[in-house]
Write a structure and sequence with these properties.
The chain has 2 domains: 2-131, Glycogen Phosphorylase B (Rossmann fold), CATH 3.40.50; 155-320, 3-Layer(aba) Sandwich (Rossmann fold), CATH 3.40.50. The chain has 12 helices and 12 strands. The chain has helices at residues 11-27, 42-46, 62-70, 84-92, 125-131, 155-163, 186-197, 213-223, 237-244, 256-263, 280-283, 301-320; strands spanning 2-6, 32-37, 53-56, 76-79, 97-101, 112-114, 169-173, 203-208, 229-232, 249-253, 267-273, 292-297. Strands 3-2-1-4-5-6 form a 6-stranded parallel beta sheet, with helices on both faces. The chain has a 6-stranded parallel beta sheet with strand order 9-8-7-10-11-12, with helices on both faces. α2 (42-46) links the parallel β2 (32-37) and β3 (53-56).
Amino acid sequence: MKILVVRNDKLGDFITALPTFYVLKHHNPANTIVALVAPLNQELAQSCPFIDEVIVDYGEHPLTLAQHLTKKNFDASITLFSTTRVALAQWLARIPLRIAPATKIAQIFYTHRIVQRRSEAKMAEFEYNLALIHPLFPRVSVVFPQPLLTFESTLFETFCRIHHLHKPIIAFHPGSGGSTEANWSVREYIELITLALEHTEIDIVITFGPDEEQLCAETKGYLGKSRVIIYPSKGSLVEFAALVSRFSLFISTSTGTYHLASAVGCETFTFFGDSLFASAARWKSIGDPHKQHPFMIPHDPEGRKMMFFTVKEALKRRLLASF
């Protein structure tokens, strides 16, 4: 069976779809699994052994996208996040079996519409995604390995050699890419980093995305001369994933890099917004639950202050434990 799986939004959203791709392929290796993804996620999707083909969605007109999909002769599609444009394109492509959540006007273009009130966060996003497999394969096992993403790379060894790192690495990622409801300020991150600097048995790296030059410069200004390594990522997403997979702890807000770090097996300290929609219950990652440490940042100043104290105490305890 040739199956199109649609998850054409941001990095974190795409990573929540990876168990769906894996389960579909593992259920029957003869299945051809094709991913429709945003340009950002093309290389990462192509690196997954359980994805056979990748189609990049550049936001084309529905008719243009439909013409592309028609040529592929799909037997079924599973749309994990639906828009009217993508739904219409699949209908025009006459894919026989089209599964999607029953949301908004887009649902009229699907043959199977599954009611999912994701805003209630009764399951995590990746679990809602997996639930959409059942109309196609009712008895499918939704178990997947952890870590789900693994990479053969010498990048970590090269990174450590260049920066003279020989100890377990704690990484801080202060940026959010505008995709989170709550985060700490640069000064608060500096306070956490300063706390970590008290432990000489670890190395510390601060990572930044390709569009976070200003944040990187501001952080450097606070640190001055220290043993902290500043790492503005300029390589590919796959290279960054391979590097992070060898870090011991990744500290960040709930954004795509958190999902990536957890998916490659790194332990995480993660900061979430204090709402049901933005909660850890909704956005826990696909990684090992025992390696995920979520913290909800309240909106009110006093609650925020108390939570920051909680985070510092939790970080102290984790740093005192061995990696």
